[in-house]
Amino acid sequence: MIQTNFHHKKHYKIQSYSKKILYITLILTISFALLEYIGGLLSNSLALLGDSFHMFSDVIALGFSLIALLFSSKKPNKKYTFGFVRLEVLAAFINGLMLVGISIYLIFEGFMRFFNPKDIDFKSMLIISTIGLIFNIVVTIILTKSLKEEDNLNIQSALWHFLGDLISSIGIIISSTIIYFTNYQIVDVIMSIIISIILFKGGYKITKSSFVILMEATTLDTEEIYNKIKEVEGIADIHEFHIWHTDTNEINAAMHILLDEYETSHDYKIVEDVKIVLKEEYDIEHCFIALENIKYNDHSL
């Protein structure tokens, strides 16, 4: 692979702090997911079992995120000229789909429990959910601190997961307390459905945002950007115009610019003017611009 000092973008990320945080979070999450699963079986709590499934989905998601992070530090090669940074987005997409699938399954199980209720061990449910609350507070603080150090899509999605877990733990504590004082076992089912809806919303949000990136789409107003660039002096027309996201932070632009027939000596100035517009007004730093001239490029068709 030919490399030069004039290449402005590395197409890889060295994120040692995020890597360390993911290792720590993964070990903690595996440990607690097993504790919640066993506790859910012993206490017959569907809400606790549901939260353990969510935690196991976190384990898988964190595993994907860690693999993506390890690959994203690899430099581009002859085959993968853009590197492996987009693996972070793919990991987030898989993560979101898992959340959606698990939430739908738990909602189904919740409705089944309406017809087949089971006795719940209040003490086990309350103890484990309280430990879960403390665990999720700790992990949320760790991930929030990590985001301040290094911005990473996977860390963002993991943080959302654990915020959801935090809400789940609070919900389980509330439901177990209500069950203790009223003996209304159905509260566990209702709470599990509420938690599942929260999971579904989070999974949908992650899936949607990562899908936009994987489809090389954008959330920006492309018509506005197009018209703004056309105002640059010396440009007659723009075609093959594309704006897309590489990840949640980086936006790219590509276009063919047809120069005015009288413009023959300020090609590089025009390119620089376009770059300034993209950077200052839309925070787009990475762009590909092909110049065309009416004198040499036939656009009669």
UniProtKB/TrEMBL annotation:
The chain crosses the membrane at residues 21-41, 53-72, 84-107, 127-147, 159-180, 186-204. Residues 23-215 form the Cation efflux protein transmembrane domain. Its main location: membrane. It is a multi-pass membrane protein. InterPro entries: Cation_efflux, Cation_efflux_CTD, Cation_efflux_CTD_sf, Cation_efflux_TM, Cation_efflux_TMD_sf, CDF/SLC30A. GO terms for molecular function: zinc ion transmembrane transporter activity. GO terms for cellular component: plasma membrane. It is found in: Membrane. Pfam families: Cation_efflux, ZT_dimer. Keywords: Ion transport, Membrane, Transmembrane, Transmembrane helix, Transport. Residues 221-292 form the Cation efflux protein cytoplasmic domain. Belongs to the cation diffusion facilitator (CDF) transporter (TC 2.A.4) family. SLC30A subfamily. This is Cation diffusion facilitator family transporter. It comes from Gemella haemolysans ATCC 10379.
